[in-house]
Amino acid sequence: MLALASAPLLAQENVQPPPATEQAADAPHDVVIVTGRAGAGTRTKSKASYSITTIDEDALRMQAPTSVTEALKSVPGFWVEASGGEASGNIRARGIPVDGFGSVTLLEDGIPVQHDPSLGYLNADQAFRLDETIERIEVVRGGPSSVFYTNAPAGAINFRTREIGDTASGIVKVGAGNFGMRRVDFWAGTPLGNGWKGGIGGFYRIDDGIRSPGYRANDGGQVRVRLTRMLDGGRIALDFKHLDDKVALFLGIPMRTYPDGDIAAIPGFDGNRGTVAGPQTRVVDMRMGNGATYRFDNGEGTHVKRKQFTVALEKELGGWKLAESLRHSSTDTQRNGVFPNQLLSSEAFLRQSQGLLARVPGATRLALRRVDAPGTDYADPNGLLLVGGLRGVTMPLEETVNDLRLSRKFAAGTQTHDVTLGYYFARFTQGFDRYSSTVLLGAQSQAPLLDLAGLDAAGRVAGTITERGIYNYGYEWEHARGKSRTHALYLSDEWQVDERLRIDGGVRWEKVNTRGWTERGANVDLGKFATSKIRTGTGVLDYYDNDFDKMGWTLGANWQLARTSGVFGRWTKAFRLPNLSSYITSPAAVPVIQTMDLGELGYKYSSAMLELYPTLFYSKYDNVAYTNNVFSIDNATSRPQTGYASSRTFGLELEGRLFPSSLVDLGFNLTLQDPEYRDLRYTDRVNNLPVPRDYSGNALIRVPKVSARLVPGVNLLGDKLRLQLAYEYQGKRYVDSANTVVLPKYHMLNFSARWQATPAVEAFLYVDNVENSQGLTEGNPRAGELASADAGANTFIARPLLGRTVRAALKYAF
């Protein structure tokens, strides 16, 4: 549920006048935008020379997104996956085949939430929560984002916080949901005297999770304190935010293709609310190769503790405008999850395990027994079991980013130039520790732990091969530390040639130094079967110290046909430099710089009845890394083969809103694209013989060719009552690069309503996934993403949409 926390932070992007001046927009429904540009002047959406989506406060309140990725469903060209819960979402922008937030950056008032938004198990959306301070969102798709921001080749998502007014005001909001959700949000701002204004806000919520693990899934909140002061020709803002929040990580479940072609959860497993994680896998003590014990607590989920302090200054200096922004953050993340790695029949598992019978003297056959009931055989109506992974990842991050801009607008005859020179600096240190163990689980919701037992001739337990459900300790182990330092210079110019034509250009040079170490791992045998192949550290450190630099540029033009319409075109050469995550598991390999060619041609129209923004786009992404990492139960998986390919996507984006009357409106967006791999060739080994593979021309994994969203709304009782329905459609996608496993098309309906009881009191109702759709958002990446081991399988692991939820909220504004 959308819960908002304090006033906006003044940043280099927020140097325009306060939101009240946005009435200066030239066309009906038009707004001033600040993302994707710099300069001393202002710019409206209808006159931008790039694609930008704006999501205002009313739209956010009616959608009430539960996560960053949910909030972006109305952005064309973005395929978003939010089925994993409130954090750790995935975004694919304009067909670029990068998971997480590897191709787009998250900004808070123009400053990066995290310098690198995709640090390997540490996505920027884990460190950010939507709440009542967020007044609007601006999303730049491609275009100039790579010039003004680091690690943003495919776009930038800017969350703009609300201003503190000239009089005391605030919000209190309480909410509840049918999955044990209870939430309270507050925000208050007031003048303090002597030019200062202060604000404080935050939220706290608890819930059992839409897919309940049998214990509290989400628990925590954040608080923000903010001070601002007007200066002579400028303003300064100080902002402190503290986040302490636990959110569950929802993963795949056992699914089946039925004779009629429908795909749904296996019988007895609730596909809308079931989850493999449960009370028996909540807290597990796992042996480590050095004799220590690793306590795995899945009740932590993704637990983020973050302190963030920001200073932003803007100042007029003799015709120049200075914008200085400094942000320091300290983030401690513990990311635990119960991963369903492999699904197979109990019979097949017992058959392939016959070689282990000799480990139990006196045993004549193998059987599966429940850990919580040692004398009870495991009996699953589907005859299935799961090989799971209990994975714990610890990631401390200390980060400082600074962005300094100088802008000036000047005339050259009848023409004008709005020039900006900027310098960006970032420094961060990251730690990474990972430990995982393999467990046997029943193929049931809140899955029970299973022991592999040896039975004697009388059917009595002669001994167990596993150890309280653990098949192998330590199938994953990593220990790494690193530092990164980035310097970037950028220059932009908005050249107004005449009243109708404007040419925008920019160039960015960036250099990064990455240095650190990873500890080599090795397998050790501590005697028992479960401890026979523990991955652990050797004490030998592999060091790296590398520099990378690259220059990119963008050039665009806007031709204003009329006050309400215009056309634009843009070509961008973008890049993404390596980061510390590139070394976590491959310290000896020197990463490569990824480069992109991005083009777009669009039309803009905004009138009292219609907003329309169609855009043709082209994306070419070079040096896309791929790995063929397939889970193996025997802990003997070789290091994954890694290579590089490229991708190419042509597409059409369409977004807009129709206002036939004050009673009815319709929002819509549509994406048509043809995303495919280029140069994806490698040599596989089958029966120890080389087999060439060529997937060039295949569709990109998990990217649909067709996506659509329709949002009709009705305003009744003099706008006191609004009813809204959101229809979402996702076309067919593929799990693997070989295009052997299909994720079928699906649709979903969400309903929302708002009733304004009094000028100060509003009530909201939200029903998400009204029809309980089980549309699949992803397959099982642990079965291989080049050629999936699930190809041809009738029963498999996949992650469907979250089930139906009903939420209500009451807001009081003063």
UniProtKB/TrEMBL annotation:
<keyword id="KW-0406">Ion transport</keyword>
<keyword id="KW-0408">Iron</keyword>
<feature type="domain" description="TonB-dependent receptor plug">
    <location>
        <begin position="45"/>
        <end position="156"/>
    </location>
</feature>
<keyword id="KW-0732">Signal</keyword>
<feature type="domain" description="TonB-dependent receptor-like beta-barrel">
    <location>
        <begin position="295"/>
        <end position="770"/>
    </location>
</feature>
<dbReference type="InterPro" id="IPR037066">
    <property type="entry name" value="Plug_dom_sf"/>
</dbReference>
<dbReference type="Pfam" id="PF07715">
    <property type="entry name" value="Plug"/>
</dbReference>
<keyword id="KW-0472">Membrane</keyword>
<keyword id="KW-0812">Transmembrane</keyword>
<protein>
    <submittedName>
        <fullName>Cyclic nucleotide-binding protein</fullName>
    </submittedName>
</protein>
<keyword id="KW-0998">Cell outer membrane</keyword>
<keyword id="KW-0798">TonB box</keyword>
<keyword id="KW-1134">Transmembrane beta strand</keyword>
<comment type="similarity">
    <text>Belongs to the TonB-dependent receptor family.</text>
</comment>
<dbReference type="InterPro" id="IPR000531">
    <property type="entry name" value="Beta-barrel_TonB"/>
</dbReference>
<keyword id="KW-0813">Transport</keyword>
<dbReference type="InterPro" id="IPR039426">
    <property type="entry name" value="TonB-dep_rcpt-like"/>
</dbReference>
<dbReference type="InterPro" id="IPR012910">
    <property type="entry name" value="Plug_dom"/>
</dbReference>
<dbReference type="InterPro" id="IPR036942">
    <property type="entry name" value="Beta-barrel_TonB_sf"/>
</dbReference>
<keyword id="KW-0675">Receptor</keyword>
<keyword id="KW-0410">Iron transport</keyword>
<dbReference type="Pfam" id="PF00593">
    <property type="entry name" value="TonB_dep_Rec_b-barrel"/>
</dbReference>
